[in-house]
Amino acid sequence: MERLQKIISNSGYTSRRKAEELIKSGKVKVNGIIVTELGTKVNKTDAIEINGTVLKVEEDKVYYLLNKPSGIISSSHDNLGRKTVVDLIDTNKRIYPIGRLDYDTTGLILLTNDGELANILMHPSYGVEKKYVARLDKYFEICDLKKLEKGIIIDGRISVPLKVKVKKNDKVKNYSVIEITIHEGRNHIIKNLFSELGYNVLKLNRLEYAFLNLENLRVGEYRRLTIKEVKKLYEYKRKNTNRKVR
User: What is the pTM of this model?
Assistant: First the structure.
């Protein structure tokens, strides 16, 4: 017996967080009965329906690292018919992105049908690091660097970047390039951090996710993760469990 949301996410249908939303909204049936209680345990042999579609359990897991271009939606589908990151991957598996990058943001994004790993990497308690490089619309004042390092209040919660490095700072051309590493995954967090300080982000590129980087991948290119890399990503769960035990 396993929790319903775990079976849904492990099937490759969607992430565990999204599976929980589907359950709570009454869109999931087990053996013909609507289930809305999170934590309900079921067997893999039970008939599970989502929005009237019978769930097919996906056993073979796949993992992709994509160098996302600008103008691509970070989703498995788009109601407006725009191209998504899934459209760029040649696979017959039902995959989805782990987290999101904005429409105009480029760089490293992971895609999989492994709901358990997706949940680990997206949950804030696991502290997965993400490194970005941002081009700002004006010269970056050093006093603002100190403010970033101390933390900025965003929507009532403090956000403290792990690292901030000024790569370029041109007073004549009035622009700057800042490298910033964070571990949280709130929407538009990088843009909001700089916006609070009075800067607009003209370009944003994600360079690294955990220990992974873009290596020699050109924009729009992707590769499959190795077994060793997948096991290393799962280490975030073990490390977090050890922290809780202490």
Answer: 0.76
